[in-house]
Write a structure and sequence with these properties.
heterotrimer; A alpha+beta (222); B alpha+beta (174); C alpha/beta (619); A: 222 residues; alpha+beta; Ubiquitin-like (UB roll); 5-stranded mixed β-sheet; B: 174 residues; 2 domains; 4 strands; disordered C terminus
Chain lengths: 222, 174, 619
């Protein structure tokens, strides 16, 4: 058993558990995209970053691939972690804006501007589809080709692979494009229909909540 | 004989001879693909299929490897390969201007081949001959202290000499 | 050749080799590194061979084509033994004179000597050449004495004595202690203490006892070619180091992963390995000690990321070079999941040295945190381009001016980039910085593998930052978001800035994005990628601001922000530029000053390149 501290609370889990799982067991939700229970952990999206504190310095690590260690001190929602997560999601929006999942995530994080050039790749390369096809369906008909920004999910020579059994799993497990954004149009990479561009009023009961405060002030709670 | 007219015959047999040389081990796939490319000057689809089936690997995995490493080309390459070094030392000495001129002279972007299949243009990241920078290597020959002006001269020299197509090719030869 | 089966047999052989070699016998050592190959050293070697034969001197004169001698700027190079006369910029036409004058008569040919451009002093012998004087060539120095295709040359310099010592007189743990005591740190970029790495590899559990050692020869930093020259010139030093390391950690299989773009290194390493096997230094029952160690050579596929240890191992396993997070170090679980000790070429080459001369001796060299010497490739805007080996702690000033001979064409030093794409640019104010791991890191750069790119006033730091980011976007494996998308957007912003489209917020955005990429990336490529950008912003912020606020490139590099103009005073009206101009943008009468039509000008620089009167100026 390994004992570690997450968000100030001590917990004990078996060796081999990831920090993401350990946090989840405690009821702490860390946002994820490329993670899917049952599939191998990939560590691609970096949205699940947590702050690992070691003495007087700290680093950010992806919790889905971070094994628990004795005496580890983890902060899942520190300012450092949230700031980095925001930029990651902003980058994701800039590369796959037409996705309700990403737009929702962005709204929740208080992202109200996408400062990067929009290059819609239609995919975040999380690899869930690839892992699903390989690990669950034992087919391995789709995979990654290319490298860097030319990297994409594909089939060999862009034809339907022999291994494909039409299970539809790759479509179903995709975290971003399965539900296209409902709004009519995107405004500079941001969904026009979401809260984050709407004018906001001050919270009626201010609990000093941890929601990011943008230039428009606190968000409205119903 | 132009590369475009080169027929891929017996890809299976050719590939088998290479695979056998490596004991049929699938972790030698990169070396196997390099040898296959030396044979055909690029990686034809038939050869990739043969490699996958003979090594017992999913075809998409072999395609993944073939498209990840810069050494491989899935398109036929030209008779002459023109490589412009873009290492830091060469960059600082003016390599971008040399590349621009090469692009203009050949009318193609790096990674591509001229329509007449004479030249393939590539960029390399440091050949380690920094004292001669900027450097351009055409086939096996190093051309040092290149400037935009010398590009035309060098290319003209090769435009007049076809080379032996059977010459085995790896990405940068000595 | 019978395999050597004991330490005694090895020393007997060495004695025989040495007794057959007469130190007074003239020997012409020709530099045969890739750089000198490009200069045509093969023609020179052939010319010497023919001339020696023609003069009937084949028995009296030895000819040796060796590895890189280091002074690449002055190639082709030869050193004439036993006097060690140093001739530079040799051509095949000089060969007969060299034989006639220097070999036969013992005279020195003045015009082939190195002349110091400042003092005018001529250096007759290698040791007097300023480039070599300040170096401490412990690892690299033997290159000039060794024909890499002849193992007996290596034996003549004492080769494989360290391996023999280790196998018969030291326990594996003792070897590890010695390396730990020396404080040797990895020379590939990470600077991790080598002894500690070996120790954790040895102590890592392995159910079937299998362990591996790997030599990382995927030297990818553009402008760095130290490892290549070591492998080309002295491959046995690396093999010996690996064998010692394998013995220490308990591995019996080793791999050398060589960059595909190094065919001469691959060739020479292959020959050396074959000979090492033949003589019994690699293989079963090495020197009759009972220790087995086999080595395989593997070629890279053209991917910079495969210099990262986990990506390298993935590539060895036949997969794409995708790194994995290193929460579990490769020393514990590496190649095929087994404990693996991976070290850089130069690190391995230091091992026989430490064993032979002792850790105590080794740790006297260098600084507190960085022991020993380091080989740097000194390139760029520098007079004496080449490979230099210096003790840790030497200052940048000494390297650049005393060894490097300063900046050519009387230009002013501006910055030096160390550590390749993972490193940073250091300005003039830091020229007296002692070069060692920790001090370079503190200054915002890293030691890296040893690339040292010197820049002058004509180098635009924004352009350099953009260059490195562009390089990395081409080499990113594409797996994780911060590196794949983050670097790509960093490139967009930098490109905009160099094209005069930069916005005021861009500099702050680069810093913010850079910080996130550093923290959030999965591997070291991503996490060090922002360094060139962040260090240039740190030290050259004014240049960024000039690009953004004034749409001006102070160094005169960024095409969109410069104008080519003909200085009417200097122009002789020769018309060469007009003929060269691909756009027909230059016009003028014969013998009259010409003019560039700015509308048509595409800033290709051909006119500037071709003008013999320096009349084309860049504004």
């Amino acid at each position: 058993m390994v004992e570690l501290t997450i968000d100030g609370i001590k917990t004990r889990v078996s060796e081999g558990t990831t920090v993401l799982e350990a946090a989840s067991d405690m009821g702490i939700t860390i946002p994820t995209l490329c993670y899917y229970p049952g599939l191998s952990c990939y560590g691609e999206c970096r949205v699940c970053l947590v702050e690992v504190v070691k003495g007087n310095h700290s680093s950010l690590e992806a919790s889905c691939t971070l094994p628990v260690e004795q005496g580890q001190v983890i902060l899942t929602d520190s300012e450092k972690a949230r700031k980095a997560r925001k930029v990651i999601v902003e980058l994701l929006l800039a590369s796959c804006p037409n996705s309700k999942t990403l737009q929702d995530m962005a709204a929740n994080m208080g992202i109200n501007k996408v400062r990067f050039k929009i290059k819609d790749r239609g995919c975040i390369l999380c690899g869930r589809c690839v892992r699903y096809c390989k690990e669950q369906m034992k087919s391995g008909g789709i995979g990654f080709v290319g490298r860097g920004t030319s990297r994409r999910v594909a089939t060999a020579f862009d034809v339907t692979p022999e291994e494909c059994r039409n299970c539809g799993g790759c479509e179903w497990i995709c975290p971003v494009t399965e539900r296209a954004c409902m709004a009519d149009s995107l405004i500079e990479g941001l969904c026009g229909g979401c809260q984050n561009l709407a004018p906001v009023e001050t919270c009626l009961v201010c609990t000093g909540c941890s929601e990011s405060v943008g230039p428009q002030g606190h968000r409205v709670y119903e | 004989m132009r590369i475009g007219a080169y027929e891929i015959m017996n890809a299976y047999e050719t590939v088998k001879a290479i695979v056998d040389r490596y004991g049929g081990k699938h972790d030698s796939v990169i070396a196997i693909l390099q040898d296959v490319q030396s044979e055909y000057n690029y990686l034809p689809e038939d050869a990739l299929r043969a490699v996958a089936s003979q090594l017992g690997l999913p075809l998409i995995q072999v395609c993944g490897v073939a498209t990840f490493f810069k050494a491989f080309s899935l398109k036929p390459r030209g008779e002459h390969t023109v490589r412009v070094c873009l290492g830091t030392a060469c960059h600082v000495r003016g390599a971008p201007a040399v590349l621009d001129e090469a692009k203009r002279q050949l009318g193609i972007e790096p990674g591509n081949t001229t329509d007449d299949m004479r030249f393939t243009l590539e960029t390399v990241n440091c050949l380690g001959a920094c004292a001669l920078g900027p450097i351009v290597v055409v086939d096996d020959e190093y051309q040092g202290q290149m400037g935009p002006r010398k590009v035309k001269k060098v290319l003209n020299k090769y435009k007049k000499t076809p080379r032996d197509r059977r010459h085995a090719e790896i990405v940068v030869s000595s | 050749m019978q395999r050597l089966l004991s330490a005694v047999e090895l020393e007997k052989l060495r004695g025989r080799i040495l007794s057959q070699r007469k130190p007074e016998k003239p020997c012409i050592s020709i530099c045969g590194g890739t750089g000198c190959h490009a200069y045509g050293c093969e023609d020179i070697a052939k010319a010497f061979k023919n001339e020696i034969k023609r003069q009937g001197l084949s028995k009296q004169v030895e000819l040796k084509v060796t590895g890189c001698h280091g002074f690449c700027e002055r190639g082709p190079l030869i050193v004439v033994y036993p006097q060690k006369i140093f001739y530079q910029r040799v051509s095949p036409d000089d060969v007969s004179e060299i034989i006639a004058e220097t070999i036969i008569k013992g005279n020195i040919i003045d015009r082939l000597l190195y002349v110091d451009p400042v003092s005018g002093e001529k250096a007759q012998f290698e040791k007097d050449v300023p480039f070599y004087k300040r170096q401490q060539r412990l690892v690299f120095g033997n290159n000039g004495l060794i024909d890499p295709t002849n193992i007996e040359d290596y034996l003549a310099t004492g080769g494989y004595s360290a391996l023999s010592q280790v196998l018969f007189n030291m326990q594996p743990e003792e070897v590890i202690e010695e390396i730990k005591k020396s404080d040797l740190r990895g020379r590939g970029g990470g600077g991790f203490p080598t002894g500690r790495k070996w120790e954790s590899c040895r102590n890592a559990p392995s159910s079937d006892g299998i362990r591996y050692v790997i030599c990382n020869a995927d030297e990818g930093d553009p402008g760095a070619y130290m490892d290549r020259s070591l492998l080309e010139g002295n491959p046995h030093s690396v093999l010996e180091g690996m064998a010692i390391g394998a013995y220490a950690v308990g591995a019996h299989d080793g791999y050398v992963y060589v960059r595909l773009e190094y065919p001469l290194a691959l060739n020479n390493l292959g020959i050396a390995l074959g000979q090492a096997r033949e003589y019994g230094f690699i293989g079963q029952n090495i020197l009759g000690s009972g220790f087995d160690f086999n080595v395989k050579i593997s070629r890279g596929g053209g991917a910079f990321i495969c210099g990262e240890s986990t990506a390298l191992m993935a590539s060895l396993e036949g997969r794409v070079g995708e790194p994995r997070p290193k929460h579990i170090h490769t020393a514990l679980q590496g190649l095929y999941g087994k404990p693996t000790n991976l070290n850089n070429v130069e690190t391995w080459a230091n091992v026989p040295l430490i064993i032979n001369r002792g850790a105590d001796w080794y740790s006297q060299i260098g600084t507190d945190g960085s022991k020993g010497t380091k080989i740097f490739s000194l390139v760029g805007k520098i007079n004496n381009t080449g490979l230099v080996e210096v003790p840790m702690g030497i200052t940048l000033r000494e390297i650049i001016y005393d060894i490097g001979g300063g900046i050519p064409h009387g230009k002013k030093f501006k910055a030096v980039q160390t550590g390749g794409p993972s490193g940073g640019c250091l300005p003039e104010s830091l020229i007296d910085l002692p070069v060692d791991f920790d001090r370079l890191t503190k200054a915002g750069s890293i030691m890296g593998s040893g690339g040292m790119i010197v820049m002058d006033e004509g180098t635009c730091m924004v352009d350099i930052a953009r260059y490195f980011v562009q390089f990395l976007t081409g080499e990113s494996c594409g797996k994780c978001v911060p590196c794949r998308e983050g670097l790509d957007r960093m490139l967009d912003i930098l490109t905009d800035i160099t094209e005069g489209k930069g916005k005021e917020e861009d500099i702050a955005l680069l810093e913010e994005l850079g910080d996130v990429i550093k923290e959030a990336s999965l591997c070291a490529l991503g996490s060090t990628a922002p360094n060139p950008v962040l260090s240039t912003i740190r030290y050259f912020r004014d240049e960024y601001e000039a690009h953004v606020r004034e749409r001006r490139c102070p160094a005169g590099v960024c095409k969109a922000l410069i104008t080519f103009k003909i200085d009417a005073e200097k122009c002789t009206g020769c018309g060469v530029c007009a003929r060269e101009c691909p756009q027909g943008a230059i016009s003028g009468e014969k013998k009259e000053p010409h003019i560039i039509d700015q509308e048509k000008c595409i800033k290709c620089g051909l006119c500037h390149d071709s003008c013999k009167f320096d009349a084309v100026i860049i504004l």
